[in-house]
Design brief:
Number of domains: 2
CATH class of the largest domain: Alpha Beta
Distance between the termini: 54 Å
Oligomer: single chain
Strand order of the largest sheet: 3-2-1-4-5-6
Shape: elongated
CATH architecture of the largest domain: 2-Layer Sandwich
Length: 284
């Protein structure tokens, strides 16, 4: 069976959440819609697609009247089997990474906090190569180059006709590391940040080293927002070997609040740009 897309999984998890919120068991759904409980269960587990008429029956039963939410869920069902450009690289990237690329492609905005690295959507090829080589310890040179190509291709979301609105808060510590043997690499990366900040839909703030204790001390994260409805937003949290996607609306809201706290603690946009420029000019 083909690996389910992130759209299929999001549809399944949302349908399960709606059913549980309505206080219904799978057997209750079967009795009231005529859909086999096993089929509904497989849809919720992202093991099976769903027809528009069956989806409407479930949404009616769960009391979903909001037209935007219904349209969003129908879009997930309709587009669930679509494969993006990243599927070409499926032998090199994990399903979790493919999910992130898919989410970025569908999102209208992204709020990201990074404590140790430049965000992937703002990395130069040279910086990406250096960091991927360090993190992917057993990757061959060819595999690293393929992953660099993927990371660069991801950045097309910032230059498409309807670009992703990106707001990032980067800890100052992430701007200061020097790549041993080639200081120009970091100078180029900082110059690229200044260039990207000129885009009207890209905002970059720096959280200074002397900032008081803050919520970002718990780690990096990104909140991806979608055009349909806020309670379908997703939080992405990455670790060395895996990625976690937070979809519960209450938890997503907490991450949104955390990002607002980080924005407030960070330097204003103009002062952030000045600091990035100063750090760039310090590199000889």
């Amino acid at each position: 069976m083909a690996e389910p897309t992130v759209r299929t999984r999001r549809l399944g998890s949302e349908l399960r959440r709606l059913r549980e919120a309505a206080g219904l068991k799978l057997s209750d759904v079967a009795d009231r819609t005529g859909l086999p409980a096993s089929k509904v269960n497989r849809v919720e587990l992202a093991r099976l697609g769903i027809k528009a008429t069956d989806l409407d029956a479930l949404l009616d039963l769960y009391g979903v009247a909001d037209a935007d939410r219904r349209d969003a869920l129908h879009a997930f069902a309709r587009d669930g089997r679509k494969r993006g450009w990243w599927q070409t690289y499926r032998d090199f990237i994990s399903p979790a990474y493919a999910d992130l690329i898919s989410l970025e492609a569908d999102a209208v905005n992204m709020r990201s906090y990074q404590s140790t690295l430049i965000p992937g959507l703002l990395q130069t090829a040279a910086y990406a190569r250096a960091t991927i080589s360090a993190i992917r310890m057993t990757a061959t040179a060819d595999e690293v180059e393929t992953l660099v190509a993927v990371r660069q291709a991801r950045q097309s979301v910032l230059t498409r006709p309807d670009p992703l609105a990106l707001w990032v808060v980067i800890h100052e510590a992430a701007l200061r590391p020097r790549i041993k043997g080639d200081p120009r690499l970091m100078k180029e990366q900082l110059a690229w940040l200044l260039d990207r900040q000129q885009l009207p839909h890209v905002s970059i703030q720096v959280l200074p080293l002397d900032a008081p204790p803050h919520v970002g001390m718990s780690g990096s994260f990104a909140v991806l927002g979608f055009p349909e409805t806020a309670d379908l937003d997703v939080v992405h949290i990455e670790s060395l070997t895996s990625a976690l996607y937070v979809e519960d609306p209450a938890e997503v809201s907490r991450y949104g609040s955390a990002f607002e706290h980080l924005r407030a603690a960070a330097l204003p946009l103009d002062e952030s740009a000045d600091l990035i420029a100063d750090l760039k000019d310090e590199i000889k």
